[in-house]
Fold:
Amino acid sequence: MASRYHEVYQSWQKDPLAFWAEAAKAVDWIKPPQKVFDPDMGVYGRWFPDGTLNTCYNALDRHVKNGCGEQAALIYDSPVTGMKRTYTYAQLLAEVNAVASVLKDFGVTKGDRVLAYMPMIPEAVIGVLACARIGAIHSVVFGGFASKELATRINDSEPKVILTASCGVEPNRVVKYKPLLDEAIDMAAVKPEKVLLLQRPQEKAAMIGGRDFDWGDLVVAALAERRTVEPVEMAATDPLYILYTSGTTGIPKGVVRDNGGHAVAMCWTMKYLYDIKPGEVFWAASDVGWVVGHSYIIYAQLLHGATTVVYEGKPVGTPDAGAFWRMIEEYKISALFTAPTAFRAVRKEDPNAEHVKKYNLKSFRTLFLAGERADPETVAWAEQVLNVPVIDHWWQTETAWGIAGNPIGLGMLPVKRGSPTVAMPGYDVRIVDEASHEVGVNKMGSIVVKLPLPPGCLPTLWQQDERMKEGYLTEFPGFYKTSDAGFVDEDGYLYVMGRTDDIINVAGHRLSTGGMEEVLASHPDVAECAVIGVKDELKGEQPCGFVVLKSGVSRSPMDIEKELVKLVRDRIGPVAAFKIAITVNRLPKTRSGKILRGTMKKIADHDPWTMPATIDDPSIMDEIMAALQSKGF
Ligand code: COA
Ligand code: AMP
Structure:
């Protein structure tokens, strides 16, 4: 079928308000919006300013009311614990009502924050939907973050209640959440009133009297009593959640998502970007702690009446590289969405795709990739072994959905490997130079999006309008700065090549090198440091820290390097995957004292490099090369 993309994109360009008014019909509003966009509200305008709705109602109640109560809403599959369970829409609604009742009993009301520090279990989705039901603003923190990161998020979001479980289960270990949470609460200046904890069979957590409550006792009782809570009427512009993401410093940014624009955007993408019909199974193999998990594990499928999947396992090793294919066959999955790194992991274990041959993948139509650039080699391999379209799409925590993609529901455009295809309706994407002038076709520049951003994108940062303006809207006036660099080719295809700031991408996870530098610099023996992302075959990039020790430090550099690796793991968490610290005598700097991280990265990556004209002492580069060689680079 010929793609309707160009026609639809032009219709959005011609009349964006009519476009989004039409899209908004997919949502059940309490008060349908009379106004589509108010340019004078908020930092750059707000969507559906006079509409009201409840997101949880849209995700659950309306499907039950429409006779789909017995349809599968959520599939839980956990190869690490051997558990499997499918929840129907009616069952999921009952569970959400039960948790919402408990939260209400705890005194949680509209606008209160509830933090969720949860592994990949159905209760993570249930807890979050319960918040949406009563108008509480949820903030999910990824389980791979350690206490200090958790404490920072507690301080910023000031949650009344924290939802958690006794542990997460990684293939090689049980991760005890409760000691991490207790330490984080100790560190935090703001204390939650209550903690609702799910005891898992793998680990029994110690409870603190008066503060900690057992999910099993309270929620199970509420479920047995069939307690219900009316969904609370929310303004479309009220926050639904805060999701923290790495910024350029150690203080993460609290990305705010609203209720109305988010619901509209999620519904639009299910139909037109992913081509999923209500009743079909769409699996995002990510984690509820990331934006992909928020949009495509928790919300979009349910808003659209499709089936979502909570998978507690890995692409390889749980038990083997056939895990994706086993899932697709078992649950008749129509589309899978994951990060390229997961496919690189599968390919490494099973280069000839022997596992694929063992499964019936008849239901499978499309593979979607995002989270990092989909390298052409991985895309080609996936296309060949799966024989389905492999669609890269580009987005950010800030946007909640694809800025660029190949909208399968509008008819697929030809795939160009290495490109996430074209801008989605809602996004006017430009490539500009430092003076905000558009550069020509095939020329690299900063990728920016003309304001306003479409529904679903962040209206602001949590209680930080100024940081929102400074971080995203000031450098290129009238545009949103994505902090990604790339180019557009002669067919209008976008290529996203890398970040313009100090964010690196490790296994599809977004990490701040600035944040890691803060941790290294806090070590008593470290005088100064620089962290760069070095190319890695599997994870895309891996962090590598260079440290200069204080004069007079006589301890073995190897011991200090080990301590530094442990320090980053303890402070930021295992997800930082920080395994390499290298002691050097000096760091290469410009004459004005700026560390030449870009050149260091090129050397470590074995990319061509030239000696920067501004370098203070060129001989330091030889020392850096020698240090890298000594570590096997
Ligand atoms: N709780 C606690 N620890 C966690 C965790 C969690 N939820 N998730 C990951 N970790 C730990 C891992 O156990 C690992 O610890 P280790 O250093 O002791 O081995 C560390 O964090 C790094 O994790 P990760 O980078 O995910 O590596 P991995 O070796 O566990 O798995 C891949 C490698 C490629 C299979 C995996 O990264 C993957 O599937 N990535 C998909 C990326 C993704 O979903 N991105 C989201 C955007 S779509
Ligand atoms: P996150 O906010 O964690 O989703 O990370 C967003 C960042 O990941 C983007 O700014 C990009 O740098 C990178 N990214 C995500 N998807 C893609 C993609 N398809 N192609 C290239 N880079 C991507």
The CA atoms of residues 77 and 83 lie 6 Å apart. The chain has two domains: 5-313+393-486, 507-630.
